[in-house]
Design brief:
Pfam families: MoCoBD_2. GO terms for molecular function: iron ion binding; oxidoreductase activity. This is Xanthine dehydrogenase family protein molybdopterin-binding subunit. InterPro entries: Ald_Oxase/xanthine_DH-like, AldOxase/xan_DH_MoCoBD2, AldOxase/xan_DH_Mopterin-bd_sf. It comes from Caldiarchaeum subterraneum. By secondary structure, the protein is α+β, with helices and mostly antiparallel strands. It has two domains: 109 residues, Aldehyde oxidase/xanthine dehydrogenase, molybdopterin binding domain (Aldehyde Oxidoreductase, domain 4), CATH 3.30.365; 151 residues, 2-Layer Sandwich (Aldehyde Oxidoreductase, domain 4). It is 34% helix and 15% strand. The strands form two sheets. It has a three-stranded antiparallel beta sheet with strand order 1-2-3. Strands 4-5-6 form a three-stranded mixed beta sheet. The radius of gyration is 28 Å and the shape is elongated.
C-alpha cells in the first residue's frame, strides 16, 4: 500500500490517504481472487461471490475456500494461468492536492469541522481558572471507528487543556531550564480533567474513498481559544496568550482597574 505522494499519519490524512490505498489494493486483490476462482470452478467471475472466507458459484453448491485457492495459486500455476501471487498494490494520489491559487499547495487531504465550548469558573481570590464542563461536536465525515474517534477527541481536548492551563517551559535569568521534570512541568491528570461531552455530525467528504475527513488535529486546535473566550467572558478582559495562568489573569485585572481609574 503506497499512499503517495504525501504518506504518513500526519496532517489528518490517514483515514483519507492510507485507507484509500488499502481499499483500492483490496479491490485489485478481490478481482485477482475471483479471476483465479473462475478458472478453478470453471465459471465466469461475474457468477462468483465471496462469503465467510469461501468463494461460491451463485445458485450452486460449487465452492472453494480462500485457503484452498491460495494453495492452488501458489502450487499449481499451470491450471491457474500463472496467477501465482495473491498480492496487490495501489498508489493513491489525492485529487485535490496542489490545487487552488498558483504558488500555494493544499497540504491537507480533507478538512473536518468542529465546535468547542468551555464552561470556566474563575476563583475571585486566586484567579485560578477551573473548567467545569467541556463540550465538543466534531464532523470528521464518515466515522470509520467511533471508539478511536472518541479517544482522539478526548485525548486532544486534554492535551489542549494541558497546553493552555498547565504546561509551561520556564527558564531563569541564566537560561537554565526550571521545569525539567514532571515535578515542575505540570500535566493534567484525571483529577484536573473536567467532564467532557462529545457528539458527532457525519457529513461524508465528496473526495475521499470512504467519505472520511481528517480527525487527528481537530480536537486540539480549538481548545485554547474556547478556554480563552470563556475567561474573557467571565472577567471582561482581553486574553492575548495561548497559555493562561492565575498570575496573568491577576495582572490583567489589575491593569484593567488602573485604566478605569485613569479614564475616570
Amino acid at each position: 500500500v503506497y499512499p503517495s505522494p504525501y504518506g504518513g499519519t500526519w496532517a489528518s490524512r490517514f483515514s483519507v490517504m492510507t485507507t484509500a490505498a488499502v481499499k483500492k489494493a483490496a479491490e485489485k486483490l478481490k478481482r485477482s481472487i475471483l479471476s483465479i476462482a473462475s478458472e478453478l470452478l470453471e465459471t465466469s467471475a461475474n457468477d462468483l461471490e465471496i462469503r465467510g472466507g469461501t468463494i461460491y458459484v451463485k445458485g450452486s453448491d460449487s465452492s472453494i475456500s480462500l485457503e484452498q485457492l491460495a494453495a492452488k495459486a501458489y502450487r499449481d500455476n499451470v491450471k491457474t494461468r500463472n496467477h501465482t501471487s495473491l498480492q496487490a498494490e495501489h498508489f493513491f494520489d489525492f485529487p485535490t492536492f496542489n490545487t487552488g491559487v498558483a504558488g500555494e499547495i493544499n497540504m491537507s487531504a480533507t478538512y473536518g469541522i468542529s465546535t468547542h465550548i468551555a464552561i470556566v469558573q474563575i476563583d475571585p481570590e486566586t484567579f485560578k481558572p477551573t473548567i467545569l464542563r467541556y463540550v465538543a461536536v466534531h464532523d470528521c465525515g464518515k466515522i470509520l471507528n467511533k471508539q478511536i474517534v472518541d479517544g482522539q477527541i478526548v485525548g486532544g481536548i486534554v492535551q489542549g487543556i494541558g497546553a493552555t492551563l498547565y504546561e509551561r517551559i520556564v527558564y531563569d535569568v541564566n537560561g537554565q531550564i526550571l521545569t525539567s521534570s514532571f515535578v515542575d512541568y505540570l500535566l493534567p491528570t484525571s483529577v484536573e480533567t473536567p467532564e467532557i461531552l462529545v457528539d458527532h455530525l457525519e457529513t461524508p467528504s465528496l473526495f475521499s474513498e470512504l467519505g472520511s475527513k481528517g480527525m487527528g488535529e481537530g480536537p486540539l486546535i480549538p481548545v485554547a481559544a474556547a478556554i480563552a473566550n470563556a475567561v474573557e467572558d467571565a472577567l471582561k478582559i482581553r486574553i492575548n496568550r495561548s497559555h493562561i495562568s492565575s498570575q496573568q489573569l491577576w495582572e490583567s485585572m489589575k491593569n484593567n482597574k488602573n485604566k478605569l481609574r485613569t479614564n475616570g
